[in-house]
What we know:
Elements: E1 5-10, H1 13-19, E2 30-33, E3 38-45, E4 54-62, E5 73-79, E6 88-95, E7 98-104, E8 112-122, E9 125-137, H2 152-160, E10 163-170, E11 173-180, H3 188-197, H4 200-204, H5 206-211, H6 216-226, E12 237-239, H7 257-266, E13 272-275, H8 277-291, E14 295-305, E15 312-318, E16 323-324, E17 330-342, E18 353-357, E19 374-375, H9 376-381, H10 390-398, E20 400-406, E21 412-414, E22 423-428, E23 435-437, H11 439-442, H12 449-457, E24 472-478, E25 482-483, E26 488-496, E27 502-513, E28 519-533, E29 538-545, H13 547-550, E30 559-568, E31 574-584, E32 589-593, E33 602-609, E34 620-624, E35 633-636, E36 646-653, E37 659-668, E38 675-683
Parallel strand pairs: 2-9, 5-6, 12-13, 15-20, 25-31
Antiparallel strand pairs: 1-3, 3-7, 4-5, 4-8, 6-7, 8-9, 10-11, 14-17, 14-22, 15-16, 17-18, 18-19, 20-21, 22-23, 24-26, 26-29, 27-28, 27-30, 30-31, 32-33, 33-36, 34-35, 34-37, 37-38
Helix pairs in contact: 7-8
Amino acid sequence: FADLVLETWDLQCERNGREHRTAxxxxxxxxxxxxxxxxxxxxxxxxxYEEGVDKLAFNVETGPxxxxxxxxxxxxxxxxxxxxxxxxxxxxxxxxxSLSISLCSPPSACVGRxxxxxxxxxxxxxxxxxxxxxxxxxxxxxPEDTVFLRDEDERCEYVLSQQGLIYQxxxxxxxxxxxxxxxxxxxxxxxxxxLLDTNPKFxxxxxxxxxxxxxxxxxxxxxxxxxxxxxxxxGVLAGRWDxxxxxxxxxxxxxxxxxxxxxxxxxxxxxxxxGQCWVFAAVACTVMRCLxxxxxxxxxxxxxxxxxxxxxIDRYLSETGEEDRRSRDMIWNFHCWVESWMARPDLAAGYxxxxxxxxxxxxxxxxxxxxxxxxxxxxxxGDLQLKYDIPFIFAExxxxxVYWVVQRDRSQKKSTHSSVVxxxxxxxxxxxxxxxxxxxxxxxxxxxxxxxxxFAKAEHEKSSLREEDEGLHLKIKxxxxxxxxxxxxxxxxxxxxxxxxRVCRLMLCxxxxxxxxTVGPQCGMKDLLNxxxxxxxxxxxxxxxxxxxxxxxxxxxxxxxxVALLTEYQTGDVVVAIRHVYIQNPEIKIRIxxxxxxxxxxxxxxxxxxxxxxxxNKCVFVVEGAGLTDGQQIKELEEPVEPQAETKFRLDFxxxxxxxxxxxxxxxxxxxxxVKGYRNxxxxxxxx
Length: 688
């Protein structure tokens, strides 16, 4: 027999991409999911392959030093039936000189970039051919993959959807901001693989790191550490919370992960400036979805940052409602992290499913700024000793807050009201643009028997500060929404639930605030020394907050913190109430003109009205959407936008992909920043 000579081959990128749901990553490279067969075609010249005469075998290798024992190299012959335990190659069909072969990895294979080599031999004479590279991803569709997710709609949302909503604002006024995850956009996959290859564990022991890339728990921990740069580890993002963002991008200005990841790569893996919690979480979500691990961004309102681990957040107020910064413990208005879906074979049964991962640098875990994966089930059950970092997240959703009012003589009075941590834990619903409340997955109902058992297990005495019916009650209410550029009213509502008249002092104070709990200058104040309350009566005291007072110091978080302090003269009791008012930005209006169809020009008309009494200068619109626009489209306005005037422009784009897409817009200017808008567009497929 003459030697078998391989002339050409075809990795069938398009067909395999369709079958493995990776087609949106483009047809330039083969991207497949583990445990699922993919087909390649070999064309031989001279003569065709003959079974029994010719031997065909493949080599797959990943990482810089592949070895069989660590799962980074595999050598396997072409056979008649697939091998369940390892890599396999099976002849599918033969047509003259061309041979179709189905290759399949085990569902526990390491993910990453592989090289594929063919060895063809006849009578001990052989040749070796380098066929090409391919990338292997986790497979949420395979029942034996540790990231297997049963529901197809959930797989579509948490693995395949490139756009989403992230919840922000305040507990009493939840807002959503659109985000372009863009995990299938050009170059993102190679950047995610580069991120794995710049992580310190890889640099310390490349072979060990690559051999552990079959485990989503390991990958999650690496990604959580690599999204921040607090360990001098060439991480993706630098965090900043002091409102000084001039030497970078303000965290509020980002609209997606693609821009951030591309900048990181372009500037030699230097940290991109700047991120805050939702930016860290969204970039981690992009990387995890890109690698095939189902993931979502979640938001916890009134999130505790318990630095000393005692599950109590002590806050100190002066008699005039000023916060005293003696405690490092903070309450964040909201805090975002990621949940990723995976089995936990490293733990006892019962902890598979959603795992919390927090890439925002807060505390070190095993010497590194990362957090998780922590089984959400373990957080709910108070199993604080399990891996990883459960006590920290448990505190974020369960800590007590105690307000101490410091009197003139430095004595302290404990407030009879404790603000509640871990509220309205939120994520985007599956397949819809609505909010799903997942608080029940983190904690049992307040006051329930199960909650008491969990706290006993976690050695946490929940302070029994349930609202007593007796005594004085204090709440802060808002009559209607507060709009940027306008004055608004807040009301302190006092209830006297006793049978006697009460005389009190009421302090009301408003300050601009950041979402991580820090406050700026005062922008409204009232001090009433004689508030008389008839028995069983209610009184409402208004405070008007003026734009001319808050406008200059409003941070990009658009929050105003209102503190009310009620001191009863007779008993000296103090009641505290706190509310964060979210100042609403104007709406960005987006109209789509024309018939939305794949690979056909479409026009978006984008407009915004300046709500302020002063002109807006240095105005910029940034538009992007995975599968819609080619990267980011930036429109800088040459003229200022006058007060109450509308600015409008048109943008042409050619959608590359069919299906439901989001066109996202961010608006920046000197006085109005981080204004977001989006429009859902359904793109019809190109006619065949």
